[in-house]
Design brief:
Order of helices and strands: HHHEEEEEHHHHEHEEHEEHHEE
Bound molecules: adenosine-5'-triphosphate, magnesium ion
Radius of gyration: 49 Å
Strand content: 15-25%
Shape: rod-shaped
Structural class: alpha+beta
Helix content: 40-55%
Length: 463
C-alpha cells in the first residue's frame, strides 16, 4: 500500500515535470514566433519610410556627387582614398537633413517604441569587362551612409540594396578630349536597432506567461491537496483499524467475565451459597457498568468541542481539587501511587462544568497511573496568574517519544499501538480532555521526556 502511494506520488511528480517542460518548450516557441513577427512588422514600417521620395532625393544627391568624384578619379585628379573621404563628408552633411525627415516620418506612423535606422555603404565598384575596379569595400568595417550612428553588432539587417549606373565622362587621352562611360555598382545595407525589443515582446506575451504560471500553480495545488488527502485518508484508515482492534479487545474481557458469571449463577451450589451468589451478582453489575462506560466513552467522543453543551457552575478551587484527589486516590488504592497536592492557597472561584471538567482531569490522572512505572508519583499544582487559572499535572511515568507528542490529542491515537495487551485503552481519553478544555475556552499543552515523565499544563480564563 505504501509502495503504491510512493509510485503514485513519483508518477505525479514526473508527469508534472514533463508537463512543465512541454509548456516551457511551447512558450519558447511562441516567444520566437512573436519576436519574428515583431521584427517583420517593424521592418515593413521602416521600409515604407525608407521609400519616401524626399529621402530618395537626398540619396540621389550623394550618388551624383560620387559619380563626379569617380570621373575625377578616372582623370587621375583624385585617389580612391580621396573619393571615400569626400563622399563621407558629403554623406555627413546630407545626413542632418536625412535624419530630420526620417524622424518626422517615423513620428507619423506612431510605432509606440523606439527604432534607430541607418544605411551602411558596403561597396563601390567600377565594373569593367576585363577587370573590375573596387573603389571602396566595407569588409568588416562599418561605413554609415545615412541615419543614426550605432554599432552593427547590436543591429539587425533588414534589407540589402544594389544599384547600377552608367555614367558619361570627359577624358583627356594624350591631350585629346574624349567622351567615355563607366558602369558603377553601389551596394548598401539597411540596419535597424529596436530599443528594449525583448521587454516589448515579453509584454506582448504577458498574458500567456501569467495564464501558464497560474494554471501551473493550480495544478500543483490540486496535486498537493490530493496527495495530502490521500495520506490523511490512509492515516485515518490505520487509526480506525487500531481503534476497532482496541475496542474489540476492551469489550471481550467484560463479556467473557459476564458469560462465566452467568454460568456460575445457574449452578445450584452457588445458588445455595448466598455470599458467593451476591459476590457473583456484583461482578455482573461491575462488568455491566464497564460495558456501559465503554459505550458512553465512544458516544461522547463522537462530539467535537463545538457540540459539547456545558453546564457551568462556580466552584472554589481548593475544595474542588481536594475532593477530586480524594476520589481518585480511592480508585487507585491497590497501586503504589502518591499524589502531591500543590493547589494554590488563596481560594479562587472558577466557573466550570463540574462533570465534564472532572472527567477531563481524571483522564490525565488515569493516564499517569496507566503509563507509570512501579512507584507512581503525581503532582497537581495550580496557579492563578493574570486572570488565568493554570493547572499543572506532572507524573514520573514512562514518558512519550518526541515524535509522537504532536499526535497525542488526536482521536484514537495511542503510542503503544503495537502493545495492546500491555495497557488497555481506546486512545480517546486525551482527545476528550482537549475537547472539554477547548469548550471551556482553555488550552492544554504537553511536555514529556521519555523514561522520565510527562507534564500537562491546562490554562483556562477565570471568567
Ligand atoms: P483511553 O481512551 O482509555 O484513555 P488511552 O489512554 O490509550 O485510552 P489517551 O488517554 O488519549 O488514550 O492517551 C493517548 C496515548 O498517549 C496513550 O495511549 C499513551 O501512549 C500516551 N500517554 C498519555 N498520557 C501519558 C502519560 N502520562 N505518560 C506516558 N504516555 C502517555
Ligand atoms: Mg487514557
Amino acid at each position: 500500500m505504501k509502495n503504491k502511494t510512493t509510485i503514485l506520488i513519483s508518477t505525479a511528480i514526473l508527469v508534472l515535470i514533463a508537463l512543465s517542460s512541454i509548456q516551457a518548450y511551447l512558450i519558447n516557441n511562441t516567444y520566437q514566433l512573436k519576436k519574428k513577427a515583431f521584427i517583420n512588422e517593424t521592418t515593413d514600417v521602416i521600409s515604407v519610410i525608407d521609400d519616401n521620395p524626399k529621402l530618395d532625393s537626398i540619396y540621389n544627391v550623394w550618388g551624383e556627387n560620387l559619380k563626379n568624384y569617380i570621373a575625377d578619379y578616372k582623370n587621375n585628379r583624385l585617389t580612391k582614398a580621396q573619393i571615400v573621404s569626400r563622399s563621407n563628408e558629403k554623406s555627413d552633411s546630407l545626413n542632418i537633413q536625412f535624419k530630420k525627415i526620417f524622424d518626422k516620418e517615423l513620428k507619423k506612423v506612431n510605432l509606440g517604441y523606439d527604432v534607430d535606422f541607418k544605411i551602411n555603404l558596403t561597396s563601390v565598384v567600377i565594373l569593367d569587362d576585363t577587370k573590375n575596379d573596387t573603389i571602396f569595400s566595407a569588409g568588416k568595417n562599418e561605413c554609415r551612409l545615412f541615419g543614426k550612428d550605432f554599432k552593427d553588432e547590436d543591429s539587425k539587417t533588414i534589407n540589402n540594396a544594389k544599384w547600377f549606373s552608367e555614367q558619361e565622362f570627359v577624358e583627356k587621352v594624350d591631350g585629346e578630349i574624349k567622351f567615355n562611360t563607366f558602369d558603377l555598382e553601389v551596394k548598401t545595407e539597411n540596419k535597424i536597432v529596436i530599443k528594449d525589443w525583448k521587454s516589448i515582446v515579453y509584454k506582448r506575451m504577458a498574458f500567456l506567461f501569467f495564464a501558464s504560471v497560474l494554471i501551473f500553480l493550480i495544478v500543483i495545488a490540486l496535486l498537493y491537496y490530493s496527495i495530502k488527502n490521500l495520506i490523511n485518508q490512509k492515516k485515518i484508515t490505520a487509526i480506525k483499524t487500531d481503534f476497532i482492534n482496541n475496542i474489540t479487545h476492551e469489550l471481550k474481557t467484560p463479556l467473557a467475565t459476564l458469560s462465566i458469571a452467568s454460568k456460575s449463577l445457574k449452578k445450584t451450589e452457588i445458588k445455595n451459597n448466598q455470599d458467593i451468589f451476591n459476590g457473583t451478582l456484583n461482578i455482573v453489575d461491575r462488568q455491566n457498568e464497564r460495558l456501559q462506560k465503554l459505550i458512553d466513552q465512544v458516544m461522547t467522543n463522537s462530539l467535537s468541542s463545538k457540540e459539547i453543551v456545558l453546564n457551568k457552575e462556580q466552584v472554589v478551587d481548593n475544595e474542588y481539587f481536594k475532593n477530586l484527589i480524594e476520589d481518585f486516590k480511592l480508585s487507585v488504592q491497590q497501586q503504589d501511587v502518591t499524589i502531591t497536592n500543590k493547589v494554590c492557597n488563596t481560594e479562587v472561584l472558577i466557573r466550570i462544568d463540574k462533570f465534564h471538567f472532572t472527567t477531563a482531569l481524571l483522564n490525565i490522572l488515569e493516564n499517569a497511573v496507566k503509563y507509570g512505572k512501579e512507584t507512581i508519583h503525581i503532582t497537581i499544582e495550580t496557579k492563578h496568574i493574570n486572570g488565568e487559572y493554570i493547572i499543572v499535572i506532572k507524573d514520573n511515568g514512562i514518558g512519550i517519544p518526541d515524535k509522537n507528542i504532536s499526535l497525542i490529542f488526536d482521536k484514537f491515537y495511542r503510542v503503544t499501538e503495537g502493545n495492546l495487551h500491555n495497557v488497555k485503552g481506546l486512545g480517546l481519553g486525551l482527545y476528550y480532555t482537549k475537547q472539554i478544555i477547548n469548550a471551556h475556552n482553555g488550552t492544554i499543552a504537553i511536555e514529556s521526556q521519555l523514561h522520565k515523565g510527562t507534564t500537562f499544563t491546562i490554562k483556562t480564563p477565570i471568567n
